[in-house]
Amino acid sequence: PSVRLWSDYLSVPLHPQSLYVIRQFLHDGDCGCLEAFGQGESLLQEPACLEELEDRLHFFVEECDYLQGFQVLCDLHNGFSGVGAKVTELLHDEYSRKGILTWGLTPVLSAVGCWMFFPQNPQKSFYRVMNTALGIAHLSRHSSLFCPLSLSGSLGIK
């Protein structure tokens, strides 16, 4: 009846343990809060957040009969690249013998009228390029296979 998260739009319901809402960056209003790689990376250095993530991860790992590996989908263009980097580092450290397939996702940019292009704001463009570069470097370091995905040929970098 009430829509609170993007996952509420899915036709297949997700397990409640698979969603973790980051309270500091709720999307009630302006959603430009988590915009830098370092913000996302420092988020998982908070003990409460890290403990919650590990609890949820262990919940699903314990349900597996034969764990073969992990798939991580991560936005590269914003602060979630830092979150994904810390998550893959955690997975690599705790489950070093398991495969980690990481998908780095970037949106398509349009030069005309796209809210993601920011030609008038060089700081946001700089954040986008730096987030993508740092995300690719960190995610590929801790993944068995890193595959960037974008519908544009430039990985969303102009």
Low-confidence stretches: 112-118
Briefly, what CATH class? Answer: Alpha Beta
Count of discrete structural domains: 1
Shape: globular
Arithmetic mean pLDDT: 82
Radius of gyration (CA) equals: 16 Å
Strand order in the sheet with the most strands: 1-2-3
Helicity range: 25-40%
Could you characterize the architecture of this molecule?
This protein is an alpha/beta fold and 158 residues long. It has one domain: Tubulin/FtsZ, GTPase domain (Rossmann fold). 37% of the residues lie in helices and 12% in strands. It is built from four helices and three strands. It has helices at residues 37-43, 47-63, 80-94, 122-141, and strands spanning 69-75, 99-105, 145-149. Strands 1-2-3 form a three-stranded parallel β-sheet, with helices on one face. Strand 1 (69-75), helix 3 (80-94) and strand 2 (99-105) form a beta-alpha-beta unit.
Topology (SSEs and partners):
Blueprint: H1 37-43, H2 47-63, E1 69-75, H3 80-94, E2 99-105, H4 122-141, E3 145-149
Parallel strand pairs: 1-2, 2-3
Helix pairs in contact: 1-3, 3-4
